[in-house]
Amino acid sequence: MHLVAYLKTAPTASYAPGWRHPGASLHDIWSPERYENLARLLEHARFDAGFFADGLGVPDTYKKSFADYLGRGGQVSLLDPMTVLPLMARVTTHLGLAPTMSTSFNGPYQLARSLGSLDLLSGGRAAWNVVTSATEFEARNCGMEGLPPKDERYDRADEVLEACFALWDGWDADAVVLDRERGVFVDATKVRYADYVGRYVRVRGPLSIPRSPQGRPVILQAGSSPRGRAFSARWAEMIFCSHATKEDALVYAADIRRRLEAQGRAPEDCKILPSLSVVIAETESIAREKAAFLDSLMDPELVLASSSELLGVDLSTIETAEQAEAAAGNHGIAGSRDRMSQVAKQQGITFAQAVRKPRGLIAGTPAMIADLMEDWFTSGACDGFVLPPTVFPATYEEVGRMLVPELQRRGLFRTEYAGRTLRENLANPG
């Protein structure tokens, strides 16, 4: 199976109250060493990659204010991930590295240039978490009056990726010559214009960044709506998703694989990776105590502010999933709304109660958690997992020290990297 880390340039990631844990590292948020140590930790555990979730601003959906979200420690990016990823590339040789970048607010040349640079600097280990963005505050921060309709955002995203691919493919692998004696720096016959013209974007090229060892960055995506799934089936090599139950994951995986086949792609061309938040300990009772302590740190207002941002609605005034979907309109993340509805159904609670619960934790021994992961993996519900930190960096230390060896013992996870590039390691998990 494949493992990918879900990251933020902040003290908290997926589990909102995690930053309050006494073991959470807060002193080094703006220190390069934090990100270098993280990279070494993930590579030592043989993770495929780490990707940084990101947003262009401070969420202010809940109560029409950023006070609760920012003040109580929500998921904000305190640094631009593109400034820390080169630090992480510098101290690793195999770990894949991915920023989140929006196709709605960036042009293809800027995207291809930044991502191509990271891909070259890392020796072919870059990925791109492609988002079309789903929040009004991001649109306003990028000079728009409001967020374009979802289908339009995805139509633009298709064009942006077509243009980026044309730019990256504009350099042959052997175009850079560096022949001092003949005075040939680049064989210009092996570099081409993109000359891409679409409805939403156009770019001439050629790109100034040569081809990387893996050709172009790996594409990561998290579309859950019908239009988002169609986009993933066309472009994604990794899909980040979030399901409350294995049954929901199986339905989703079957749908994605049907869509891949319709695109002329094989199932193995795209790795489906649901999110799994784990609490690991030597015994089940200790793990449950650790999870209970984490839950005791829960700030109800922060959880509700976080859920409001994911759904794109102010949940201080919303009670049902139907109300949330109607109020969200063009905003919010369909996958998050689906997950919260799944939680409500699974636990026999209302939607209003589900959105007030922090993300569910899987607590147990390494063997117990490996049992669950093996069950999902061997049943075809997924190709691996995205693991967020419940406590940073302790979660990744425990995964590397306790969970990964158990998965390796079962023959479910690599003991060494098989390839040089991220795309090679996705194709050959070892």
Give an overview in words.
The protein has a single domain (2-170, 203-427), classed as Alpha-Beta Barrel (TIM Barrel). The chain is globular. It has 430 residues and is an alpha/beta fold. The strands form 5 sheets. The protein has a 5-stranded parallel beta sheet. A 4-stranded parallel beta sheet has the order 3-2-1-15, with helices on one face. A two-stranded antiparallel sheet has the order 6-7. It has helices at residues 32-44, 67-71, 81-90, 108-121, 136-141, 150-168, 226-235, 246-262, 284-296, 300-311, 321-328, 334-347, 351-354, 366-378, 394-409, 422-427; strands at 2-7, 49-52, 96-98, 100-102, 127-131, 176-179, 184-186, 196-197, 202-203, 218-221, 238-241, 271-274, 278-280, 362-364, 384-387. Helix 7 links the parallel strand 10 and strand 11 (238-241). Helix 7 packs across helix 8. The model has no long low-confidence stretch (mean pLDDT 93). This is NtaA/DmoA family FMN-dependent monooxygenase. Pfam families: Bac_luciferase.
Distance, first to last CA: 9 Å
By CATH's scheme, which homologous superfamily applies?
A: Luciferase-like domain
Low-confidence sequence ranges: none
Main sheet: strands, sense, barrel: 5 strands, parallel
CATH topology-level name: TIM Barrel
What structural category arises from helix and sheet content?
A: alpha/beta
Please report the number of helical segments: 16
> Based on CA inertia axes, which overall geometry fits?
globular
